[in-house]
Amino acid sequence: MQISARGDYAVRAALSLAAAYPSLLSTQTIAGDQDLPRKFLEAVLADLRRAGVVRAQRGAEGGYTLARAPREVTVGSVLRAVEGPLAGVRGLRPEETSYVGAAENLPNLWVAVRAALRRVVDEVSLADIVDGRLPAHVRKLTALPDAWEPR
């Protein structure tokens, strides 16, 4: 899985909002906290607002806050809001793929890849990250001998 700048910025902005929840944060504050380009961040926050992940309040005391408590917002929901489906194969959902011959069972692998990804991003809340308390099964993945090695 490749996480774009848009996805990375969305998660980082959501984490800033989670840390401040339920207070409102301005775009300028979030951009400063996370060293993000403000104009790009504004577009990302608009996507998050349209998806119902954040809510905005206008005015001098305005800003953004999470639409739900940080424990109720998963990393997966933030990524989907700005990136779309988590796993795609040539623009198709894994279950929509079909192959012949030696590759006929490949859709099973693509579905398993998506399921594994969901097992991490849909089971980790913003509060888990802010609090530094990842679920045990995610911590185990980071402890695998080759987890931190590039390939």
3D architecture notes:
With 151 residues, the protein is mainly alpha-helical. The protein is built from seven helices and two strands, in the order αααββαααα. A two-stranded antiparallel ribbon has the order 1-2. Helix 1 packs across helix 4 (75-83) and helix 2 (27-34) crosses helix 3 (38-50). The model has no long low-confidence stretch (mean pLDDT 95).
Summarize the structure.
By secondary structure, this protein is mainly alpha-helical. It contains seven helices and two strands.
List keywords for this structure.
mainly alpha; globular
Nearest-integer average pLDDT: 95
Residue ranges: pLDDT <50 for 5 or more in a row?
Answer: none
Q: How many helices?
A: 7
H/E topology pattern: HHHEEHHHH
Rg, alpha carbons: 18 Å
**Strand percentage, roughly?**
5-15%
Q: Roughly how many Å apart are the termini? A: 13 Å
Draw up the topology in text.
Elements: H1 5-20, H2 27-34, H3 38-50, E1 54-57, E2 63-66, H4 75-83, H5 106-121, H6 126-131, H7 136-142
Antiparallel strand pairs: 1-2
Helix pairs in contact: 1-2, 1-3, 1-4, 2-3
